[in-house]
Amino acid sequence: MTALLEARHVTKVFGGGLLRKTQTVALENFSFQVSGETPRITAIVGESGSGKTTLARLLLGLVTPTSGEILYRGKDLQKLSGEDRRAFLHDVQAVFQDPFEVYNPFYKVDHVLELPIRNFGLAHSRRERRAMIEEALHAVGLRPEETLGRYPHQLSGGQRQRIMVARALLLRPRLIIADEPVSMVDASLRATILGSLLKLNQEFGISLIYITHDLTTAYQVSQDIIVLYRGSVVEAGDVEQVVRDPQHPYTRLLVGSIPLPNPDRVWQGERVLGRPAGELRPVGPSYCKFHERCPFAMPMCVEQAPPLFQTDPRRVTACYLYREAPAIQPEELVGVFANGHQVQVVSRPEAQREGGAGGVGS
Amino acid sequence: MTEVLRVEDLRVYYHTEAGPVKAVDGVTFALKPGERFGLVGESGSGKSTIALALLRLIRPPGRIEGGAIYLDGINLLSLDEEEMRRLRLARISLVAQGAMNSLNPVKRIKEQIGLALRDHGVQMSRAEFDRYVAGLLQRVGLRPEVATMFPHELSGGMKQRVCIAIAISLEPQVIVADEPTSALDVVVQWQVIDTLRRVQEELGAAVILIGHDMGLMAQTVDRIGVMYAGKLVEIAPTRELFREPLHPYTQLLIASLPSLDGKGELRGIPGLPPSLLSPPPGCPFHPRCPFVMDRCRVEESILREVRPGHWVACHLH
Ligand SMILES: Nc1ncnc2c1ncn2[C@@H]1O[C@H](COP(=O)(O)OP(=O)(O)OP(=O)(O)O)[C@@H](O)[C@H]1O
Ligand SMILES: Nc1ncnc2c1ncn2[C@@H]1O[C@H](COP(=O)(O)OP(=O)(O)O)[C@@H](O)[C@H]1O
Ligand code: SF4
Ligand code: SF4
Ligand SMILES: [Mg+2]
Ligand SMILES: [Mg+2]
Fold first, then answer.
1. Are A269 and B263 in contact (CB < 8 Å)?
2. The model scores a pTM over 0.95
3. Is residue B89 included in any domain, yes or no?
4. Count of domains forming chain B
5. Domain holding B249: CATH number?
6. Among A350, A269, A179, A304, CA closest to B220
7. DSSP letter, residue B88
8. Ligand 1 pocket test: which of B13, B15, B21 has the largest number of ligand atoms within 8 Å of its C-beta?
9. ipTM confidence
């Protein structure tokens, strides 16, 4: 069974060119699959700069991996033939964080919606095209008569974002990669839009990668979740477990920092975790990237990056606090997800586990 | 002076081919010095338009049709363009929605900060300036190296913090922040809001925080104004608004908040926001209101103070 879209050991490093000495590892050794058969909703959460958008852009073929590869139906995304490329452009749709970027200021927003219908010959008449557009706009709470015929700058931020969602809905793709699709809309609309994405998932079997920093909506819509910290997976698995009972100190911080709509509950932010342990300096190139902020940091944390410890059949945590659990390889990650392509996870002897992410063979 | 800012019957329309869009239609509120006032409401309800109007940055086809904006007793709408330019940033500043996209892509961050200062005639030596920029960046939780970076080297969240740094650079009395943190994760949100709060308290500046995250509002502002279709439909102290929302729209908005206590049904308020081209007669919320009565369809609902400090525009009250 070939996955619809697969990331294999993908690393993306920015910078390091002639002009800049500093390098940013935006994503490190990331492996993931979206099945073509079992639609599912995966949330990808993490702080800003954790590599979420980079991941989305990699999966869409908008940036090339520094190492590793992205495969569309088993074929390297960077080397697709014309026909495969076309299929890919239909199968995988994007909704971007920054709705301004994708609009051409000189075209009315109608263009954004008409273009895909034309390109993929989805409508047979003008009337049919108009009906499709209206239906998609309604699904995201927009009035066609007040949206069509306008230029992008004539719409509010939330309205622009919703048009991008409407566009993705129009095409009925196999997968929608949505990068912060509702960050600019209010709670009620957010529920409406996510509800329509959820409906698409259920009715038409469209998979969704929902990228967000909003854990609450991630929890509400997704089955699986991946938490990124500075380009690495720190915790992943069943959303109920990860969000309601976070293990990794960073996930605990994220969950604890959610501002609650209750003025009587104090928003603690960074204080929820307590003081960082401090004093620990990495001894080599590999270490836990969270150690500077972690109150539980131990010497081993700065000697070798923690591998993914499988603390439950449906969850992994990259933290030495859970080193009793067996470690898995990054590419085995899909195995912990619901309906995931089942990768056999064999338990490993103690000695190999100590070797960390790089040292274990399967 | 008990009010640093007073907005009276502000009206802003966008003149489109299809007719005037009444984005802000008779909005009145006031801000005490040092107060944090939250403005919430559905997408498209006119929040950003208010923000732009407060700085007189409305561009055609938009126009301020009427009303008054008093900043420290001066009506901003009566100033000429040059006088207004001098007040911007120095006395009232804006972190625009999506401001991070408007950073100049070919200029280093410190040049962009310098530009804003120079525009207002601030003189500094090079060393002073570098120290100043480092301090400013630190205030918003950014490393000093960011000063020499270009916008494309920063993540969205970092860019947004740069914009906040620019907005506080001249220590204004009123800071208007339009969704300053909606692109940031909760931890950074807390840092930024904490910073904004600290800077604001130091300066004694008032803040208008525009947003849609009711959790963030609950934790940040002293009072909240709820917008619906270009009008303020409720204003109340934060605690009171959450404890006892009076307007049906506010009630539904609070009820639609997702939680971590269990997966609920994802459903927003049924129906579409009203047309601002031809707003419904009577109460603008009547087509979606579960409590609609006959008079709501014909009689406009006026914002009235029904309890001390608690204003609502609804015929039920
Ligand atoms: N330049 C323009 N020309 C025509 N209509 C406009 C223009 N700018 C905004 N509008 C309309 O005015 C109304 C209010 O827009 P505004 O940007 O103030 O909304 P908002 O409350 O800030 O929404 P959001 O929460 O989505 O940012 C919307 O219906 C929008 O489509
Ligand atoms: N084109 C680029 N050039 C240099 N650095 C970049 C570029 N794009 C992203 N980065 C860096 O990569 C990291 C991850 O960024 P991004 O994927 O945008 O994070 P997120 O979407 O999670 O906020 C950040 O440190 C950011 O500064
Ligand atoms: S591996 Fe160590 S430093 Fe990293 S999160 Fe776990 S305890 Fe903290
Ligand atoms: S005035 Fe009438 S329609 Fe409007 S909110 Fe009140 S009860 Fe509902
Ligand atoms: Mg991003
Ligand atoms: Mg806005």
1. no
2. no
3. yes
4. 1
5. 3.40.50.300
6. A269
7. B
8. B21
9. 0.74
